[in-house]
Design brief:
By secondary structure, the protein is of the alpha+beta class. The chain folds into 3 domains: 1-198 and 247-332, no CATH class; 200-245, no CATH class; 333-375, no CATH class. It contains 12 helices and 14 strands. The strands form 5 sheets. The chain has a 3-stranded antiparallel sheet. A hairpin with a 2-residue loop joins strand 8 (139-145) and strand 9 (148-150). Helix 3 crosses helix 4 (90-103) and helix 6 (177-194) runs antiparallel to helix 8 (253-267). The termini are far apart. 20% of the residues are buried.
Length: 385
């Protein structure tokens, strides 16, 4: 069977289509491209991918119990090419890979070259909508990229969220499609409201005359036209003006959108505060709890992702070499907490000052700087500093 199909088919299979019940422009239909047009999903996926792309990948081997840096394999320098003379950097590869894993739940690539050890040397990323799989007894028995049936040893496949017995990752955006549809429909309604207007500007009615069926049909047709075009509805002879304009906020649009935005944050595994989504009824936001929330995100949510990325990069190099993403560029604490930790490590003789200066790309203290510290009374005036 075709397990992965093109975007509209995926969304339609997972979320039954519900047609528009409001008047005005046609209701947006669910699709993966529609999901990526929602700012919450775009920002949530971007922050996951961007944070990972910021981290340099370092390769090591253990020599006499000591971790020694080694050169990265070529595939970890330029994993793929956009075209002749346009190589993809590792940061770009990490970004696109994480975007796919968090969004569609899968990352696919064709292994277009291997090194002398048979390890991947070059990838050609494949959009998930171009992948077709045949599955038998919970096992993938055929891979097809576009119209090409692939040998299994030419396929690079990573999965995001997993369930037992499913050979592909769970598509988070498809799971969120109902919320995506709510947001898209609400935005479309607001566009109708402020553009063509989803309700008439007002009503002129007759206060005493009872209308016949034919007259009611005629009035209804006029009303439908007024809704679509935002015109005044006129009916009857003894006129009474009734204004029907209302503020969008009074109709609950903003509350509904905010609640759905928070729900979408959960689907893309991103704290609302990181992408400026307001949370009602929560704790008072201050520097301390925002810092703690950010740290929780980096440790609890990004930690598992980084572990799996380290494993993926390690599989690209010869054993016993291994890869580690350098998290110092991202997992840094606020300056005050970082300074306190460094002082504690130096005082406990766990790390040397020159080592900690190197983390911030500072050169070791010069003799002139040591003299300045002595004049300020920060280090002894005699003996080694």
């Amino acid at each position: 069977m075709g397990l992965l199909r093109r975007d509209p088919a995926v969304a339609a299979e997972l979320i039954p289509t519900r047609y528009a019940t409001y008047r005005g422009t046609a209701k947006p239909q669910p699709s993966m491209s529609l999901a990526m047009k929602q700012s919450v999903i775009f920002a949530g996926l971007n922050i996951h991918a961007a944070l990972e792309a910021m981290m340099p990948a370092d390769f090591y081997r253990i020599v006499d119990g000591v971790k020694v840096p080694v050169p990265p394999p070529p595939v970890a320098v330029h994993p793929s090419d956009f075209g002749i003379g346009h190589p993809e950097t590792l940061a770009e590869w990490l970004y696109a890979r994480r975007l796919g894993l968090k969004g569609s739940g899968n990352y696919f690539a064709e292994i277009v070259a291997k090194d002398s050890l048979g390890l991947p040397a070059k990838f050609q990323p494949i959009p998930v909508e171009d992948v077709r799989l045949k599955v038998r007894n919970h096992q993938i028995v055929e891979w097809k990229f576009g119209k090409t049936v692939m040998d299994a040893d030419r396929v690079w496949h990573e999965r995001g969220m997993l369930v037992p017995g499913n050979p592909v990752g769970i598509n988070a955006l498809a799971q969120a499609m109902m919320d995506v549809e709510v947001i898209a429909t609400t935005k479309q309604y607001l566009s109708d409201w402020f553009g063509n207007s989803a309700i008439p500007g007002g009503i002129l009615r007759h206060k005493s005359k009872t209308l016949s069926d034919k007259q009611r049909t005629s009035v209804k047709a006029k009303y439908d036209s007024s809704v679509t075009n935002g015109e005044v509805l006129v009916t009857g002879a003894d006129w009474e003006w009734i204004g029907t304009q209302a503020k969008a906020a009074e109709s609950g649009f903003l509350e509904a959108m905010n609640a759905t935005h928070v729900d979408l944050c959960r689907f893309v595994d991103t704290p609302a505060n990181l992408i400026d989504v307001p949370v009602s009824g929560g704790a008072v936001v201050n520097y301390a709890n925002v810092t703690q929330k950010n740290l929780d995100y980096l440790v609890m949510r990004k930690g598992p992702d980084l572990k799996r990325t380290n494993d993926a990069l390690t599989s690209l190099t010869a054993r016993p070499r291994f890869a580690r993403l350098n998290q110092n560029a991202v997992l840094a604490m606020d300056p005050l907490t970082a300074a306190q930790l460094m002082a504690t490590q130096i005082g406990a003789k766990l790390r040397a000052p020159s080592e900690l200066r190197g983390i911030d790309d500072y050169a070791p203290f010069s003799d002139e700087q040591f003299d300045e510290l002595r004049r300020l009374g920060l280090i002894p005036t005699t003996g080694a500093p």
